[in-house]
Amino acid sequence: MGAITAREAKPTINDVAREAGVSKKTVSRVINRSPLLNDATREKVEKVIAALGYVPNPQARALALRRNFLIGLIHDNPNAQTVLNVQEGILSAIRDTEFALVVRPVNRRSPRMLDDVRAFLEQQRLFGVLLMPPISENDELARVCEELGVGYVRMGSAQLDSGEHLVESNDREAVRKAMEYLVALGHRRIAFVAGPEGFRSARERELGYRDAVKAAGLPQGPELEAAGNYTFETGKLAGDKLLDATERPTAIYSCNDEMAAGVLHAARERGLSVPDDLSIVGFDDSPIAAHIWPPLTTVRWPVAAMARTAALKLIDPGHASGQPALFPSIFIERGSAAPPRR
Amino acid sequence: MGAITAREAKPTINDVAREAGVSKKTVSRVINRSPLLNDATREKVEKVIAALGYVPNPQARALALRRNFLIGLIHDNPNAQTVLNVQEGILSAIRDTEFALVVRPVNRRSPRMLDDVRAFLEQQRLFGVLLMPPISENDELARVCEELGVGYVRMGSAQLDSGEHLVESNDREAVRKAMEYLVALGHRRIAFVAGPEGFRSARERELGYRDAVKAAGLPQGPELEAAGNYTFETGKLAGDKLLDATERPTAIYSCNDEMAAGVLHAARERGLSVPDDLSIVGFDDSPIAAHIWPPLTTVRWPVAAMARTAALKLIDPGHASGQPALFPSIFIERGSAAPPRR
DNA sequence: GCTTATATTGACACCGGTTACCAAACAGTG
DNA sequence: CACTGTTTGGTAACCGGTGTCAATATAAGC
Description:
Chains A, B: InterPro entries: HTH_LacI, LacI/GalR-like_sensor, Lambda_DNA-bd_dom_sf, Peripla_BP_I. 2 copies of one chain form a homodimer. The first copy, chain A, is an alpha/beta fold and 342 residues long.
């Protein structure tokens, strides 16, 4: 059995070729599933590959093919669970392929952000990158990818780019539906906690709120609106403002769950019972939504599925080409919303 | 200025050499900071590199050097924020180096887990990997790395490995101190929610609890103990059990925050006020700790700093060689613990 | 049986860096 | 001035794969 070979060294394509009595090119064909290859030869080579435990060197392949098998995730999302869900989604798409996932958090506020990303892309020469919100809304970033010839797909809550570069969720409609649920419960005075300026997702969710307000002819005005930046703390502040208004709302829609938790906190401090005195509905279905009391009625953003599709679009553009993939959100009814008292 | 060259193609080392009028070997020496090199030459070459915007091809380097610049993070941690903090820590260590971070979540329960990891390591030929808890406690996994010649560093809550492969936190002592805090508040009947079997961190935290119980001569027994698996749901179940005991505890120590939130939930269902009727203390300082009501008194695990050190150990073993790096946890006093009523 | 089309396979250069080894240039000795 | 020793730069081979294109074998056409 077998010649005397170094135990430690990993077998190379040459070892396989020699052992199988074929040229390295033939082995290469086997690896790459070339169709123009005799089945008998293929089997023979595959047997040797298995026996030797040969695994092609990805660096060598990357060099010869002038493309590597790394896909990058560029993000600056404050919600850890969301980021991890995206990573899971991507991983599920590249599982059992030769691709691997490289992560790169960035700081949206840094003036060097674009240069950082550019340097990163130039240095690593990634196959492509996935841009997740909110940084995905940055058009300059997309342009940098374009310029550097790096494939990219943006995950967004609105029509940000052409179909081949986009995976989309319909936050606006999802919020409208959640609002309709509150209206159906009997609420009229529904306040809104908006997200940070410049976030497309925040904008879309606000539009959904306004759609519903207009459609149902609900009261509106500055007393019924507050803004935050997606954090628990700013949600608490927004809750403080809305609940101290002269005419208190019976329900508050917060455009993400962290802020909804902050609103809940503010209500609790005022001795208000949720949902009896105040209904609260959020967005995202963060883990926190199920873990606070009462559990939060919210909207689940199918983030892992979006990420999965985004990754598939990146590594196999032909497969899912054309129109943007649109992912509907799901309304999750839990315990934080009920008919208004009286 | 300059010769007529293709605009689009990335410059190679040959372009730099030609433009600078030196050999590619000399350019290579500049890139690799070889000391035996004339300063004037070095500057000349560096100027050309900057002018051309040349960036060495990492795949080619990886091939020639027989090592790449990818470090992997292998994890199966259920806490998203912790995972992200670890990623941040690693990134801060490799920022401005040529290293990049590849993530690889695994499923601890899968029987194929070890094979998956082995395949991953063989295929990607990483420079090294970081193992974060709880998977870092798996000795077989470490052995696989060893066998494959992949560098590794384990992050753990106990002496898991020799110093060069370990970054350590002292959970046991941290829990003991948190318990002493409860004792100092006047609690005697303190129950414990343990973590899942087989988790070293859970074991260490339990030992910390027992240390304190013994030192203060507190009551103990099966009525004062319950186990969970680090999730909110199992924490709720543990809370149900402990709070329905014939003699109810005045405080509950939960060995992580998610479960503490579950306990809080259980208390709330029974109409108990926290912290007046029941004090609760957790561990981890997950984001949830600050976002529930009342905010949770807990222990912060310096996870990002640990990850940073782990990454540094990996990429520059000489620098931080020898003894394991030990990271003390910090006690965070918030609102969920108070003196017992009466 | 001979020519042409088709299926398989191999030889060789090349991807963009690295190292090994050698030659040239320059300096310091006796 | 010849003889070493020390810097420096050049050449060629190599890392482990891939593409191109020619060579061979086999099948088909007349």
